[in-house]
Write a structure and sequence with these properties.
Helix content is 5%, strand content 68%. It is mainly beta and 180 residues long. The model has no long low-confidence stretch (mean pLDDT 84).
C-alpha cells in the first residue's frame, strides 16, 4: 500500500520555472541586409550568448514517462565586429587606414515547446520535443568607426563614425518551428 501511495504522488501534474544561459551560432552575411549601403563585407560565423526563461507544466505518466509543455522567451542577440581598411583622411593626406565595423543583431522569440520526457534513473532525463515560435524582435544596428579617431577620419565623410543605421530584418520569417 505504501508503494501505491508513492506512485499517486509521482503522477500529479507539476509546474515549474526555468532559466538558461545559451550559446547561439550566427552565420553572418551583412551585405544582404536591407538598408545597408556598404561595399565592405562583414561575414563569418560567430558564437554569441543569450538567455532563455519561461514556465513549464508536466503531466506524469506511468513507467517513468511524462508529457510537458513549456512557454519560453529566448534572447539570441549577437554583437559582431571586424577590423577592415579603407581610405582615411589624416588632416593632410588621404591614406589607407583601419576602422572597425560594428554590427548588433537583436533577435528574440516567444515559443511553445511540447515535449516527451523519460526518466532514465534518478534525476537523469531524456527529452524529445518540438518548438513553435514567434519572432518578437528582429532588429539590427550597425556603424563603422575609425580606429584612430583623433588622427584619422573617413575620407568620404570626414567624420570618425559613418554608416550609423538601424532597421528591422524584414527577410526573417516571423514564425518558426523546430525539433528539440
Amino acid at each position: 500500500d505504501l508503494l501505491s501511495t508513492e506512485k499517486k504522488k509521482i503522477q500529479k501534474p507539476s509546474f515549474g520555472i526555468f532559466a538558461s544561459y545559451n550559446q547561439t551560432k550566427h552565420n553572418s552575411d551583412f551585405m544582404n541586409l536591407p538598408g545597408i549601403d556598404n561595399p565592405y563585407p562583414l561575414t563569418g560565423e560567430e558564437y554569441q550568448t543569450g538567455f532563455s526563461a519561461g514556465v513549464s507544466y508536466d503531466w506524469h505518466l506511468p513507467d517513468d514517462f511524462s508529457l510537458g509543455l513549456r512557454v519560453s522567451f529566448n534572447n539570441m542577440q549577437g554583437d559582431f565586429s571586424a577590423v577592415q581598411e579603407t581610405e582615411m583622411y589624416d588632416g593632410i593626406n588621404v591614406v589607407t587606414g583601419p576602422y572597425t565595423h560594428h554590427y548588433q543583431a537583436k533577435i528574440a522569440t516567444l515559443g511553445i515547446e511540447p515535449y516527451l520526457n523519460y526518466n532514465i534513473y534518478g534525476g537523469f532525463n531524456v527529452f524529445v520535443g518540438g518548438i513553435l515560435g514567434l519572432l518578437v524582435e528582429k532588429n539590427y544596428s550597425q556603424y563603422q568607426e575609425s580606429n584612430n579617431p583623433r588622427s584619422m577620419v573617413f575620407n568620404d565623410t570626414r567624420t570618425a563614425i559613418r554608416n550609423n543605421m538601424s532597421n528591422v530584418i524584414d527577410e526573417m520569417k516571423s514564425v518558426y518551428a523546430g525539433l528539440n
